[in-house]
Design a protein that fits this description.
Elements lengths: L2 E4 L6 E2 L2 E2 L3 H10 L4 E5 L6 H10 L9 E3 H12 L4 E5 L12 E3 L8 E4 L8 H12 L3 E4 L5 E4 L2 E4 L1 H12 L4 E2 L5 H11 L6 E5 L2 H10 L3 E5 L19 E3 L5 H4 L4
Parallel strand pairs: 1-4, 1-13, 4-5, 6-7, 6-8, 8-9, 9-12, 13-14, 14-15
Antiparallel strand pairs: 2-3, 10-11
């Protein structure tokens, strides 16, 4: 392996607090001269905020090492729907990472694109019903990810993927998904670290979005037993299983032969 891609939430941190051995593992990879990219579907913070939080916790990470689903969404829409108006439903302010998008809001808006980020209190009946109305009128549905849940220090919490499934079914449409496990997201990470897919390993706690998604695009997948990990994840999905399973990212340097 020549490069390491890592999920953040549930792998390096939980509720932004470092997991045991995570800082040391990232330092070991850095000291070995291997490039690192952090791939996150987190939509509550910008790339700069995430990098600052991780650096304050001791991780040798800068903004250029972080790839977020909001940034990937902005890049896609800027390329494919440059003049479209976009209505965003998201918990957290990530407008800094959505530079260039024409964001609209309010009951009289008629957006060309409905963009769904991470779930929170904003995902109430009125907001979801408004999105449903726009989709009925022909707006395109774009999702930063389709995660069903994530782990916090108080347990698992419902995420926007659960609502996305309902909107797709009710409106008879299918969302364009820009975060993991989208091929374009992994491709952007590989360009950032400058290696081919079979030269990179992806470490994650979500067997579908992180691990099997990466394996489907030619990367090596590593599932960790932290974060949102559930025991049945090791059985895989539809006959596809994670190539490697570790108790935590603390074991990664040894797996890569760095210690």
């Amino acid at each position: 392996m020549r490069a390491v891609l890592i999920d953040i939430d549930g792998v390096l941190t939980v509720s932004w607090k470092p997991l045991d051995g995570a800082v040391e593992a990232v330092r070991a990879v850095r000291e070995a001269g291997m490039p690192i990219a952090l791939l996150t579907n987190t939509t509550s913070r910008t790339r700069a905020q995430i990098a600052d939080t991780l650096a304050d916790a001791g991780f040798p990470i800068g903004p250029g090492d972080v790839l977020t689903a909001p940034a990937a969404t902005a890049a896609h829409l800027s390329e494919h729907r440059r003049d479209a108006t976009c209505l965003l439903l998201n918990s957290g302010d990530v407008t800094e990472d959505l530079h260039g998008l024409r964001l609209v809001s309010g009951p009289d808006s008629r957006p060309d694109v409905v963009v769904i980020g991470g779930a929170g209190p904003e995902f109430d009946y009125a907001a979801l019903d408004e999105l449903f109305g726009h989709l009925q009128r022909g707006a395109e549905l774009v999702a930063m990810h389709r995660n069903l849940f994530w782990r916090t220090d108080t347990g698992l919490r419902l995420d926007s993927g659960a609502f996305l499934l309902g909107l797709e079914r009710a409106a008879g449409t299918e969302a364009v998904v820009l975060g993991k496990p989208a091929e374009a997201f992994f491709a952007a990470a590989l360009r950032a670290v400058g290696v081919a897919a079979d030269e990179a390993v992806m470490v994650g706690d979500d067997v579908e979005a992180d691990v099997l998604g990466a394996q489907a695009h030619g990367l090596h997948g590593v599932l960790v037993r932290t974060g949102k990990y559930q025991p049945d994840a090791e059985d895989g999905v539809d006959g596809h299983r994670p190539q490697h399973v570790l108790d935590s990212i603390a074991e990664l340097p040894a797996m890569l032969g760095l210690s």
